[in-house]
Amino acid sequence: xxxxxxxxxxxxIDDEPDNLQLLENMLRxxxxxxxxxxxxxxxxxxxxxxxxxxxxxxxxxxxxxxIEVCKQLKADVRYSAIPIIFLSxxxxxxxxxxxxxxxxxxxxxxxxxxxxxxxxxxxxLKLRDLQKELKSQNEELEDMVLARNRQLAQAHARLxxxxxxxxxxxxIISHEFRTPLNGMLGVNELIMGELSxxxxxxxxxxxxDLSRQxxxxxxxxxxxxxxxDIDGEKVFHSAPVPLSPVLTRAIARTSQIADSRHVKLxxxxxxxxxxxxxxxxxVRAFHALLDTAxxxxxxxxxxQLANHVDDGSRRITIESSGRTISAxxxxxxxDVFSIGELVAGNEGVGLRPSVAHRILTLFGxxxxxxxxxxxxxxxxxxx
Length: 383
Known about the structure:
alpha/beta; Rossmann fold; 5-stranded parallel β-sheet; rod-shaped
């Protein structure tokens, strides 16, 4: 039998023919598709053939009771969601309790009141529609979550590939380039030794020394970045480290480039507490940040260090006075592959910001950068 798509199907089960006829006529007048069955056993077979949207089930029937029919339907995952309204002339409370315990959703007493039957049927059909809609939405949401998880897994896999490629690239730079470069640098040292002491040759020697230092610095930084990425906390263990000696050593390492650029380093004084890390690596990190700040400072300018303690947390700030950074470069200031874009004056800052960031985050610190108004940059290290 063809049933309109929006017509609800109701199965009525009662061993009394008059009740079946009455309910069938009532419900069909309201536009429902009704199937009437005189026994529970026939009903179980009919449900398997075509599931109804709602079942009206007499509680007291011979051979197999309505309670047993309900239990069998609720025990089968294929039919357990079909709402069942019990029918009975009995008014005993225990009778109703058994009906609800078996899985019934409602109870209609005989003799039937037409308005009551219509109201209860309409209510539970509406609830059934809402349950189906909720189930459909949940399934759709689960599909979306699964699809999103697949996308995230694929993106994570791609990031792992890129991260590994980056580490391999840095490893090649720091290891495979070093041997041929040492040969080239050795030859150049011999050539530089044969030059005269004229101003022109002295300038050439200075240019060579600066280029050699910068090249070796990039190789050393690349090697350290690779070691941190590969070994991380397994190799670089942290312990309490007094911060004052670390900053003193970092400032001493930075003094040469600061003097050459006529930049003043305004240092901290007194004991400023301890942080967790490794002394040599922390010195290297602060030296990298101070060196970067110096390169962003104009001649005769100042690099200012400051110590801040707020609610038990410590912040060290490094402020330069000079050039600022464009907004797009601020976002990738500590990115390894921004090495060619971050330029201070006429030269780049190399891997210094990346090295400092990687060391400090390894030991649980946060590192940030911002423009200090229009007169330089401000680096903030929070422990």
